[in-house]
Amino acid sequence: MLSVWRDSTSGWKRNSNGSRTLSYDMLRVAAKKDGEDRTLFYTSLRRRYVEHYLEIAEVLNFAELNKTGFEKIMKKHDKVTNLHCKDDKMRELSGKYSFTHPGKLEAMKKSVEEEFARCFWSGDVDHAKEELRESLRELVIWERNTIWRDMLQSERRVNAVVAKKAGQGIKRYWMPSLKPVPVFVSVIMFLIVLLASPALFDLLPNISHYHPANVYAAQRSLSLVVLVSFLWATEAVPLYVTALAVPALSVILNVYVTENGKRLMLSGDAAKLAVSAMCSSTILLIIGGYSIASALSKYALDKTVAMYVLAKAGQPSQVLLLLMLLAVFLSMWISNVATPVLLNSIMLPIVQGFSAHSLPFVKCLLLGIALASNIGGMGTPIASPQNAIALSALEGMQQVSFLQWTAISVPLMLLMVILGHGLLMFW
Questions:
Q1: What topology does it adopt in the membrane (predicted)?
Q2: Of 36, 75, 192, 203, whose Cβ has the fewest other Cβ atoms within 10 Å?
């Protein structure tokens, strides 16, 4: 039960079993006249104060969240109906019992902090607040993709569709994702390299030793690389369009040669080679890795595991080591770029209550997460696209299985994490 309840006439009131009972128990501890085991009673009372502080914080968050939600609803209502009743409704809402006298909750919160300081910190309110606020890390609210929210989004998209006759009030946009200026610059650079590449290749030493077909294909390949690089860097077109255009452009520009390198490959054979390269095991491995990462993120499994592990931490050195090990583990299965973002979102609510003298430790946490995420990127073949590319490069020489890769990398990663942890703690 919460230590406060809602009364329709007088707003929020203290429960008789809430702060008053805690204050009475505090006096019993201070008087040293209780016949029970004082140490056990002392620990139990400390835990009850923390739980009571959490309850007050939850009620404050609940009231603020509902008030914000009501304000957004009224704002949307005014926008849809072209009315201006939000301000009146908000003033009317402020007189309702659910949001009356929020200062009472703040006063109750302050009272708990002061009593906690007198009982456990010899009147030091700042240290008492720091301990109580550390317990608030359990109040981190994760945004989740739920079926209900997806249904609402789908319904809004359907409701936004309005049928109109052709030419009546319909604005036509030609490829809104297309950026004309970057596309024009990319094409100009492509043409410049394509026309200038023969003269540039003539300046290379020993170019005459290569077959003309190879030289021709190399010139076209250089032009294609320049075009794709500019399109990718400027995002002149969506990135997936640039990626899917590479096989088609490589066939059109005749960049493929036969195995003996003495003639250009026919268009049909070149198309088969390009499509087979797009469907290689390396590409499918990378896609599978990103699919696993997406599934973990969608159902918040990664965050659940992270919060469970951090809840077991005690000393600052243990927190740093657990965060680094957690970053290594997560980077083995999801992107080592997404892992720091995930762990930072978990860590920031924890460190927000730290005092100024804890700044070096916060820096150690950030550096440890970044370092461990990079280390974990080599843990499995799916941890990073570079690993999959390295595996494909070894196919003709030595076949390395998933288990062999992991068996070699995991001990090395653990050693690097221990060394990094020691260096950060020493620093």
A1: Multi-pass membrane protein
A2: 203
Tokens of 399: 């076949």
How many Å apart are CA 401 and CA 422, to the nearest integer?
A: 32
Spatial separation of the C-alpha atoms in residues 204 and 193, rounded to whole Å: 15
Distance CA 324, CA 181 (A): 45
Q: What are phi and psi of 334, to 5 degrees?
A: -120, 175
Burial category of 114 from C-beta neighbours within 10 Å (exposed 0-12, middle 13-18, buried 19 and up): middle
Q: Could you tell me the CA-to-CA distances from 182 to 79, 225, 231, 247, 339 in Å, in that order?
A: 37, 16, 7, 21, 32
CA atoms within 13 A on the CB side of 5: 8
User: Are 274 and 368 a contacting pair, CB within 8 Å?
Assistant: no
Beta strand pairing call for 11-14 and 4-7: antiparallel
State the CB neighbour count (10 A cutoff) for residue 233: 11
Closest residue by Cα to residue 427 from 365, 376, 345: 365
Measured from the Cβ of residue 52, the count of other Cβ atoms closer than 10 Å reads: 24
Residues in a beta bridge with 7: 11
CA distances (Å), origin 315, targets 21, 318, 320, 322: 32, 5, 9, 11
Q: Cβ atoms within 10 A of the Cβ of 173, count? A: 7
Helix (H, G, I), strand (E, B) or coil at 174: coil
- What does pTM read for this prediction? 0.40
In the beta sheet, which residues pair with residue 13? 5
- Which residues in 4-27 are b (16+ Cβ under 10 Å) and which e? beeeeeebbeeeeebbeebeebbe
